[in-house]
Specification:
There is one protein chain. The protein is an alpha/beta fold and 255 residues long. It has helices at residues 16-29, 44-47, 60-64, 94-98, 107-112, 132-140, 158-171, 191-204, 217-221, 229-232, 237-254, and strands spanning 3-7, 34-39, 75-76, 82-85, 121-126, 143-149, 177-184. It is globular and about 50 Å long. The model has no long low-confidence stretch (mean pLDDT 92).
Length: 255
Protein backbone atom coordinates (compact mmCIF):
# COMPACT_ATOMS: atom_id res chain seq x y z
CA UNK A 1 0.00 0.00 0.00
CA UNK A 2 1.42 3.35 -1.05
CA UNK A 3 1.80 6.50 1.02
CA UNK A 4 0.24 9.85 0.09
CA UNK A 5 2.41 12.85 0.98
CA UNK A 6 1.29 16.47 0.53
CA UNK A 7 4.02 19.08 0.04
CA UNK A 8 2.54 22.24 1.52
CA UNK A 9 3.30 25.74 2.74
CA UNK A 10 1.06 28.75 2.21
CA UNK A 11 4.13 30.91 1.54
CA UNK A 12 5.16 31.10 -2.11
CA UNK A 13 8.74 30.64 -3.31
CA UNK A 14 9.85 28.25 -0.58
CA UNK A 15 10.62 25.32 -2.90
CA UNK A 16 7.36 23.32 -2.85
CA UNK A 17 7.26 22.59 -6.57
CA UNK A 18 11.04 22.13 -6.83
CA UNK A 19 10.76 19.59 -4.01
CA UNK A 20 7.70 17.85 -5.50
CA UNK A 21 9.33 17.41 -8.92
CA UNK A 22 12.82 16.44 -7.75
CA UNK A 23 11.75 14.23 -4.83
CA UNK A 24 9.42 12.37 -7.22
CA UNK A 25 12.24 11.94 -9.76
CA UNK A 26 14.70 10.86 -7.04
CA UNK A 27 12.28 8.26 -5.65
CA UNK A 28 11.75 7.05 -9.24
CA UNK A 29 15.52 6.80 -9.74
CA UNK A 30 15.63 4.66 -6.59
CA UNK A 31 13.11 2.32 -8.28
CA UNK A 32 10.01 3.41 -6.38
CA UNK A 33 6.78 3.80 -8.35
CA UNK A 34 5.62 7.39 -7.94
CA UNK A 35 2.57 9.48 -8.86
CA UNK A 36 2.90 13.26 -8.67
CA UNK A 37 -0.46 15.07 -8.41
CA UNK A 38 -0.27 18.71 -9.45
CA UNK A 39 -2.81 20.55 -7.29
CA UNK A 40 -1.51 24.04 -8.08
CA UNK A 41 -3.22 26.11 -10.83
CA UNK A 42 0.22 27.40 -11.89
CA UNK A 43 0.90 23.82 -13.12
CA UNK A 44 4.67 24.19 -12.67
CA UNK A 45 5.08 20.63 -11.38
CA UNK A 46 3.51 19.37 -14.63
CA UNK A 47 5.70 21.47 -16.93
CA UNK A 48 8.73 20.66 -14.74
CA UNK A 49 8.41 17.02 -15.78
CA UNK A 50 8.04 17.73 -19.49
CA UNK A 51 4.25 17.94 -19.82
CA UNK A 52 2.77 20.60 -22.11
CA UNK A 53 0.07 22.01 -19.83
CA UNK A 54 -1.74 23.71 -22.74
CA UNK A 55 -2.62 20.29 -24.15
CA UNK A 56 -3.98 18.85 -20.89
CA UNK A 57 -7.56 17.74 -21.58
CA UNK A 58 -8.07 15.74 -18.37
CA UNK A 59 -6.16 16.60 -15.23
CA UNK A 60 -6.48 17.25 -11.50
CA UNK A 61 -9.27 19.78 -12.11
CA UNK A 62 -11.58 17.16 -13.69
CA UNK A 63 -10.59 14.59 -11.06
CA UNK A 64 -11.35 16.88 -8.10
CA UNK A 65 -14.72 17.93 -9.50
CA UNK A 66 -15.45 14.24 -10.26
CA UNK A 67 -16.11 14.73 -13.99
CA UNK A 68 -13.32 12.26 -14.82
CA UNK A 69 -11.80 9.13 -13.35
CA UNK A 70 -8.39 9.55 -11.70
CA UNK A 71 -6.80 6.95 -13.99
CA UNK A 72 -7.92 8.89 -17.08
CA UNK A 73 -5.92 11.90 -15.88
CA UNK A 74 -2.60 10.11 -15.37
CA UNK A 75 0.19 10.59 -17.91
CA UNK A 76 3.76 9.30 -18.09
CA UNK A 77 6.48 11.83 -17.35
CA UNK A 78 10.03 12.01 -18.68
CA UNK A 79 11.35 10.80 -15.29
CA UNK A 80 11.71 6.99 -14.90
CA UNK A 81 8.97 5.38 -12.74
CA UNK A 82 7.13 8.70 -12.32
CA UNK A 83 3.55 9.32 -13.50
CA UNK A 84 1.85 12.71 -13.29
CA UNK A 85 -1.71 13.88 -12.81
CA UNK A 86 -1.20 17.29 -14.46
CA UNK A 87 -2.85 20.59 -13.61
CA UNK A 88 -4.29 23.28 -15.84
CA UNK A 89 -5.07 26.97 -15.27
CA UNK A 90 -8.79 25.92 -15.02
CA UNK A 91 -7.93 24.64 -11.53
CA UNK A 92 -8.05 28.25 -10.32
CA UNK A 93 -11.88 28.06 -10.49
CA UNK A 94 -12.23 24.89 -8.41
CA UNK A 95 -12.51 26.65 -5.02
CA UNK A 96 -15.54 28.64 -6.21
CA UNK A 97 -17.13 25.60 -7.89
CA UNK A 98 -16.78 23.38 -4.81
CA UNK A 99 -18.18 25.92 -2.36
CA UNK A 100 -21.75 24.54 -2.49
CA UNK A 101 -20.79 20.87 -2.78
CA UNK A 102 -21.35 18.48 0.10
CA UNK A 103 -18.15 17.04 1.61
CA UNK A 104 -16.14 19.41 -0.58
CA UNK A 105 -13.01 18.81 1.55
CA UNK A 106 -13.00 15.11 0.56
CA UNK A 107 -13.33 15.39 -3.24
CA UNK A 108 -9.68 14.56 -3.96
CA UNK A 109 -9.53 11.83 -1.31
CA UNK A 110 -12.53 10.00 -2.81
CA UNK A 111 -11.07 10.30 -6.31
CA UNK A 112 -7.60 8.89 -5.57
CA UNK A 113 -8.27 6.36 -2.81
CA UNK A 114 -7.99 3.41 -5.23
CA UNK A 115 -4.60 4.58 -6.53
CA UNK A 116 -2.77 3.90 -3.26
CA UNK A 117 -2.32 0.24 -4.09
CA UNK A 118 -0.69 1.06 -7.45
CA UNK A 119 2.14 3.34 -6.25
CA UNK A 120 4.81 3.32 -3.56
CA UNK A 121 4.45 7.09 -3.11
CA UNK A 122 1.84 9.62 -4.21
CA UNK A 123 3.10 13.20 -3.86
CA UNK A 124 0.73 16.18 -4.01
CA UNK A 125 2.17 19.57 -4.98
CA UNK A 126 -0.03 22.11 -3.18
CA UNK A 127 -0.87 25.68 -4.13
CA UNK A 128 0.69 28.49 -2.06
CA UNK A 129 -2.46 29.07 0.02
CA UNK A 130 -4.49 27.48 2.80
CA UNK A 131 -7.63 27.34 0.66
CA UNK A 132 -9.90 24.50 -0.37
CA UNK A 133 -7.35 22.95 -2.77
CA UNK A 134 -4.72 22.62 -0.04
CA UNK A 135 -7.38 21.40 2.40
CA UNK A 136 -8.34 18.67 -0.09
CA UNK A 137 -4.68 17.64 -0.33
CA UNK A 138 -4.23 17.52 3.47
CA UNK A 139 -7.46 15.56 3.89
CA UNK A 140 -6.23 13.01 1.31
CA UNK A 141 -2.70 12.69 2.65
CA UNK A 142 -1.09 10.33 5.14
CA UNK A 143 1.55 12.95 5.90
CA UNK A 144 2.85 16.37 4.93
CA UNK A 145 6.31 17.71 4.05
CA UNK A 146 6.73 21.42 4.84
CA UNK A 147 9.52 23.16 2.88
CA UNK A 148 11.04 26.11 4.78
CA UNK A 149 13.26 28.62 3.03
CA UNK A 150 16.47 29.52 4.89
CA UNK A 151 15.65 33.24 4.91
CA UNK A 152 14.44 35.91 7.33
CA UNK A 153 10.68 35.35 7.00
CA UNK A 154 11.03 31.55 7.05
CA UNK A 155 9.23 30.96 10.33
CA UNK A 156 6.59 33.59 9.71
CA UNK A 157 3.40 31.76 8.82
CA UNK A 158 4.73 28.37 9.94
CA UNK A 159 2.62 28.59 13.11
CA UNK A 160 -0.47 29.28 11.00
CA UNK A 161 0.25 26.25 8.80
CA UNK A 162 0.82 24.02 11.84
CA UNK A 163 -2.50 25.24 13.30
CA UNK A 164 -4.23 24.41 10.01
CA UNK A 165 -2.70 20.92 10.10
CA UNK A 166 -3.96 20.50 13.69
CA UNK A 167 -7.46 21.56 12.59
CA UNK A 168 -7.38 19.09 9.68
CA UNK A 169 -6.27 16.33 12.10
CA UNK A 170 -9.09 17.21 14.46
CA UNK A 171 -11.91 17.58 11.93
CA UNK A 172 -11.07 15.82 8.65
CA UNK A 173 -8.09 13.47 8.88
CA UNK A 174 -6.94 12.33 12.31
CA UNK A 175 -4.28 10.08 10.74
CA UNK A 176 -2.45 13.03 9.13
CA UNK A 177 1.17 13.10 10.26
CA UNK A 178 3.97 15.63 9.72
CA UNK A 179 6.53 13.78 7.61
CA UNK A 180 9.08 16.51 8.25
CA UNK A 181 10.20 20.10 7.87
CA UNK A 182 12.56 20.49 4.92
CA UNK A 183 15.09 23.33 4.92
CA UNK A 184 15.54 24.69 1.39
CA UNK A 185 17.62 27.34 -0.45
CA UNK A 186 20.43 27.06 2.10
CA UNK A 187 23.57 29.11 1.45
CA UNK A 188 26.37 28.16 3.85
CA UNK A 189 28.16 31.48 3.18
CA UNK A 190 25.30 33.47 4.70
CA UNK A 191 25.13 33.90 8.45
CA UNK A 192 21.34 34.28 8.18
CA UNK A 193 20.95 30.86 6.49
CA UNK A 194 22.91 29.23 9.31
CA UNK A 195 20.83 31.06 11.94
CA UNK A 196 17.55 29.87 10.37
CA UNK A 197 18.83 26.27 10.35
CA UNK A 198 19.82 26.55 14.03
CA UNK A 199 16.45 28.08 15.00
CA UNK A 200 14.37 25.47 13.16
CA UNK A 201 16.46 22.57 14.48
CA UNK A 202 16.31 23.97 18.03
CA UNK A 203 12.52 24.43 18.03
CA UNK A 204 11.45 21.39 16.01
CA UNK A 205 14.40 18.94 16.47
CA UNK A 206 13.09 15.50 15.42
CA UNK A 207 10.58 16.96 12.97
CA UNK A 208 13.35 18.37 10.72
CA UNK A 209 14.84 16.31 7.89
CA UNK A 210 18.60 15.75 8.18
CA UNK A 211 18.91 16.59 4.48
CA UNK A 212 19.16 20.31 3.71
CA UNK A 213 18.54 21.53 0.14
CA UNK A 214 21.29 23.95 -0.82
CA UNK A 215 21.05 26.84 -3.26
CA UNK A 216 22.09 25.48 -6.65
CA UNK A 217 22.11 27.15 -10.08
CA UNK A 218 21.39 23.86 -11.86
CA UNK A 219 18.25 23.34 -9.75
CA UNK A 220 16.97 26.69 -11.00
CA UNK A 221 17.82 25.90 -14.64
CA UNK A 222 16.23 22.43 -14.86
CA UNK A 223 12.53 23.51 -15.01
CA UNK A 224 13.15 25.68 -18.09
CA UNK A 225 14.13 22.48 -19.91
CA UNK A 226 11.09 20.60 -18.58
CA UNK A 227 13.31 18.21 -16.64
CA UNK A 228 13.98 17.20 -13.05
CA UNK A 229 17.46 17.79 -11.69
CA UNK A 230 18.07 14.03 -11.94
CA UNK A 231 17.55 14.15 -15.73
CA UNK A 232 19.15 17.55 -16.21
CA UNK A 233 22.37 17.18 -14.19
CA UNK A 234 22.63 14.13 -11.97
CA UNK A 235 26.17 15.15 -10.88
CA UNK A 236 24.99 18.49 -9.43
CA UNK A 237 24.71 19.38 -5.76
CA UNK A 238 20.93 19.75 -6.21
CA UNK A 239 20.62 16.17 -7.47
CA UNK A 240 22.75 14.88 -4.57
CA UNK A 241 20.54 16.75 -2.07
CA UNK A 242 17.25 15.37 -3.46
CA UNK A 243 18.60 11.82 -3.77
CA UNK A 244 19.68 12.11 -0.13
CA UNK A 245 16.16 13.31 0.81
CA UNK A 246 14.57 10.42 -1.09
CA UNK A 247 16.81 7.90 0.70
CA UNK A 248 16.01 9.50 4.08
CA UNK A 249 12.27 9.34 3.32
CA UNK A 250 12.44 5.67 2.24
CA UNK A 251 14.50 4.72 5.31
CA UNK A 252 12.13 6.56 7.65
CA UNK A 253 9.08 4.82 6.18
CA UNK A 254 10.70 1.37 6.19
CA UNK A 255 11.44 1.81 9.91
Amino acid sequence: MGKIIAIANQKGGVGKTTTSVNLAASLGALEKKVLLIDADPQANASSGLGIDVDTVAVGSYQVIEHSANAKEAIVTSNAPNVDVMPAHIDLVAIEIELVDKEEREYMLKKAIIDLKSEYDYILIDCAPSLGLLTLNALTSADSVIIPIQCEYFALEGLGKLLNTIKSVQKIHNEALDIEGLLLTMFDSRLRLSNQVVEEVQKHFSDMVFDTIIQRNVRLGEAPSYGESIINYDVSSKGAANYLSLAKELIKKNEL
